[in-house]
Amino acid sequence: MKQTLVLLAFLFAFQNSSAQLFTKEKVANPVDNIDQKRLTWGYFIGFNQYDFNFDYQEDLKDILVDEAVGFHLGLIGDMRINDYMNLRLEPGVFFTTRNLMYDESLFPNDDYNDSDLLREVKSTYVHIPLLLKISTKRINNFKPFIIGGFSTALNLSSNQDNPDDNSSGEFRMKKNSYFYEVGFGIDLYLQYFKFTPSIRGIFSMNDELVRDADPNSPWTGNVAKMQTRGVFINFTFQ
What sequence ranges are listed for the domain Outer membrane protein beta-barrel (predicted)? Predict the structure, then answer.
């Protein structure tokens, strides 16, 4: 699924800009001088696919994660450092769903029902990254770059303060998460704006699981650490 998203993203980008990308001359347009401005603004929309990485206390059956494609949107503030580096703030709202599937062997004495084997984890993140963008020299109408940095996210769907836990059907996560991010993309200089498709991976640095009251809980008892990881496909307009 991730490979399909990546392919569709770049097919879309090149289909809409190929007529201008490979011309021998730069497109003459109002955004020719955008790279020389100290501060610029824009917005982004895109797709995401979140996953969980689990570390375990004992060698038991893994918790399987069924990933779904989510949606996100946000704003961009870009500060030019020099011709090749920019500092970016990209606050956004991200919507995603992950389904956790538990093996029957995690429940002693067959003490479970079908609903116990599945936890639907819906998350709405307010995601705020601070990123350093390092670009090459502009080549005709495109400019490749790499990007990386750190971010924090507030999970509005965390249930952290809910007194009920998985024994009552409530899967809980911490409200605050911290990530490092790395990715790449291409600035495409079109007639009236700069369009940028990019791909970014995010990796959580903290344990996000709120454990059940029962230390032997089949849902959380064997989990040493649960961390989010994911892929973003962004389409940026400046």
Answer: 37-208
Start-to-end Cα distance in the chain: 29
Q: How confident is the model at residue 2 (pLDDT cuts 50, 70, 90)?
A: very low
Separation between Cα atoms, residue 221 and residue 128, nearest integer Å: 31
* CATH for 167: 2.40.160.20
> Side-chain half-sphere of 114: how many Cα atoms within 13 Å?
0
Per residue in 70-96, pLDDT (tens digit) is 999 999 999 999 989 999 999 999 999
Residues 208 and 177 sit within 8 Å (Cβ to Cβ): yes
Distance CA 48, CA 234 (A): 9
**Residue 98's CB: how many other CB atoms inside 10 A?**
21
Claim: this prediction has a pTM higher than 0.70: yes
Q: What is the dihedral of CA 36, 39, 40, 46, to 10 degrees?
A: 120
Domain that holds residue 107: 2-237
CA atoms within 13 A on the CB side of 189: 20
In sequence order, what DSSP letters do the residues of 59-128 get, joined into one string?
A: S-PPPEEEE-EEEEEEEEEEEE-SSSEEEEE--EEEEEEEEEE--GGGSGGG---GGGGEEEEEEEEEEE
| pLDDT tens-digit readout, 38-49 | 999 999 999 999
Domain count for the chain, please give it.
1
Paired tokens of 205: 């640095």
- pLDDT at 226 (0 to 100): 96
